Amino acid sequence: MTQNIKKIQVMNGPNLNMLGKREPAIYGSLTLDQINTDLARQAVPLGMALGFFQSNHEGAMVDKIHDMFEEEIAGIIINPGALTHTSVALRDALLLMSCPIIEIHLSNIYKREAFRHTSLLADIVAGQITGFGHYGYTMAVMAMAVMINDD
Ligand code: DQA
Fold first, then answer.
1. Partners of 11 in the β-ladder
2. Does position 1 have pLDDT exceeding 50, yes or no?
3. What residues does 128 pair with on adjacent strands?
4. pLDDT band at 151 (very low <50, low <70, confident <90, very high)
5. What is the pLDDT of residues 112-146, one digit of tens each?
6. Ligand 1 in contact with 22 (CB < 6 A)?
7. 106 within ligand 1 shell (Cβ under 6 A)
8. What average pLDDT does range 11-25 have in this prediction?
9. CB 105 within 8 A of CB 85
């Protein structure tokens, strides 16, 4: 039996390219490249191929989602960074997509400043994973595998 490999897009928003250097007490010491390398490996036995995209620009995130709208994407794992709390444009773009979306944060946004307690994506995603550091990305990949193989 040939396995149908599902394409999952992992998206990271502003400042997440600085992981490893950026406030390591909050965000950990791994770089985004290290996290992505581990994730790509973890996805293989789960029948998923991961694409990776990071941008510091809201419009570039929106454009990437428009590109995905034209592709066969089975799921999206997104850490929108600060855009979580501010971006109606990102929310509206994600509403185009019919695939499952998992929101992930390295830190627990609900334990931090009040302005981080609101996610403009919370009610349009399948679920949030927040506060487990880089392991949250692994949890998101595992959750995505369960969601997309459940049909
Ligand atoms: C973050 C939390 C956001 O509040 C913050 O702006 C980030 C990272 C996280 O992964 O914990 O850039 O999304």
1. 53, 78
2. no
3. 103
4. low
5. 999 999 999 999 999 999 999 999 999 999 999 99
6. no
7. yes
8. 97
9. no
- Cα separations in angstroms, 9 against 13, 90, 137: 13, 15, 12
Ligand 1: residue whose CA is nearest its atom 12? 81
Element (H, E) at 66: helix 58-69
Whether the CB of 12 sits within 6 Å of ligand 1: no
Q: Are 107 and 27 in contact (CB under 8 A)?
A: yes
| Residue pointed to by tokens 């250097």 | 21
- Mean pLDDT, rounded, of the chain: 96
Residues 16, 113: Cα–Cα separation, whole Å: 19
> In a mutational test of the pocket of ligand 1, which residue from 17, 22, 105 has the highest number of ligand atoms less than 8 Å from its CB?
105
**Closest ligand 1 atom number to CA of residue 136:** 10
**Section 101-108 average pLDDT:** 98
Residue 62 has pLDDT above 50, yes or no: yes
| 108 CA to centre of ligand 1 in angstroms | 9
CA distance linking residue 132 with residue 151, whole number of Å: 28
- Please indicate whether residue 86, judged by its CB atom, sits closer than 6 Å to ligand 1: no
